[in-house]
Amino acid sequence: MRQKIWILLLCLLSAIAIILVSLTRHQSPVSFDDPPNAPLSQPPADPVPTLPEPSPLSMEFRRAPAVVPSRLMADLEALAFERSTPDNREESREYIRNRLVAAGWTPQSQPFADGINLIAKKPGRNPEAGSILLGAHYDTVPGSAGASDNGSGVAVLLEVARLLQDWQTERSLELAFFDLEEIGLHGSFAFASDPNLVADLRGAIVVDMVGYACYQAGCQDYPSQLPIQPPSDRGDFVAVIGDTEHLPLLEVFLMETRANLPPVYTLPVPFKGLLIPDTLRSDHAPFWYHGIGAVLVTDTGNLRSPHYHQPSDTPLQIDRDFFIGSAQRIADATVTLLESQGSLETNMTSTFLEAKP
């Protein structure tokens, strides 16, 4: 019995060490403490934090082609209708299929109980390098047009599909449009539970609500269980939430600090989110449960937007510049991961060595 207690204590201390190191290494290089009217490019009073040390895969930042704002907005506006019934979800799928085919992709359906996912894949140069998944849910809650939740995520995936249709990358790129996220993550559970679909998957980027920003003091809220000091009380940043077992998926979002893009706040989450339930509310969670690295990219939804799950979630409420900048960050991170090599898992040995005094 005593031996079991010591083992449990050792595991707990090890986990705390990993968390502390992760939080130290994964602060956004953009200062959130600048005065409200200060430009993002203004040098902070303290020295600029260094970027995280390169992961074992030695990622090199790769910039994607520039997103086309008119196409992003056109997709978002075309999908701005309630997508909760079987009929209007099929209407959504038909729109997504047509856009993918026009971009040179071959979409396929993955039926599951009461729903249908749409998936597409573009092979990479190296079959041994595996694939990166870019995913977003296309359904809404009843009564909401779902412009930000999650027309914005679907529009980003469609734009990345167009941008990368002719690109040859090291890894394969997979796209997944998940059904029935709003009633229990059913689509992503069906995808992540299929061994044939995840056999070559090295990591996933899930995009869920990236269209709303607020700039007045106090407009941004946070989960009560958050283990660190929140970066800002203004909702002007993109949040990227990932599991501590796959920190390179978070690192990639800290590799570009252009001032014309929204700042990024990354949150490494231990124990598959069990200590912070608010971090398990989107389609990345099923991948965590199956041991697959995944990050959620989000504007934080109801922690920021009064239009969350409301009829007022329309294109009129979308912050156009924030949305376009978020899409560019996602495209850049996707290309960087597609051109990377090696494992996307956290180097635990290196982490423990760094934690020693």
Written description of the protein model:
- The chain is an alpha/beta fold and 357 residues long.
- The protein has helices at residues 2-25, 69-78, 86-102, 147-163, 186-192, 195-198, 248-251, 285-289, 320-338, 348-355; strands at 108-112, 115-122, 131-137, 172-178, 201-207, 238-243, 264-269, 294-298.
- Helix 4 crosses helix 9 (320-338).
- It is globular.
- The model is unreliable at 1-57 and 349-357 (pLDDT under 50).
Quickly describe the structure.
The protein is of the alpha/beta class and 357 residues long. It has ten helices and eight strands. The longest helix has 24 residues, at 2-25.
Q: N-to-C SSE series?
A: HHHEEEHEHHEEHEHEHH
- Oligomerization state: single chain
Class of secondary structure makeup: alpha/beta
| Low-pLDDT runs | 1-57, 349-357
Report, as a whole number of angstroms, the end-to-end distance: 31 Å
Helix content: 25-40%
Strand fraction band? 5-15%
Counting DSSP E segments of at least 2 residues, the number of strands comes to 8
Q: What's the alpha carbon Rg, rounded to whole Å?
A: 20 Å
In round numbers, the mean pLDDT is 84
Helix run count: 10
Shape: globular
Q: Major sheet, described briefly?
A: 8 strands, mixed
Widest sheet, order of strands:
1-2-4-3-5-8-6-7
Features:
single chain, 357 residues, alpha/beta, 8-stranded mixed β-sheet, 14% strand, disordered C terminus
Present the secondary structure layout:
Blueprint: H1 2-25, H2 69-78, H3 86-102, E1 108-112, E2 115-122, E3 131-137, H4 147-163, E4 172-178, H5 186-192, H6 195-198, E5 201-207, E6 238-243, H7 248-251, E7 264-269, H8 285-289, E8 294-298, H9 320-338, H10 348-355
Parallel strand pairs: 3-4, 3-5, 5-8, 6-7
Antiparallel strand pairs: 1-2, 2-4, 6-8
Helix pairs in contact: 1-10, 2-4, 4-9
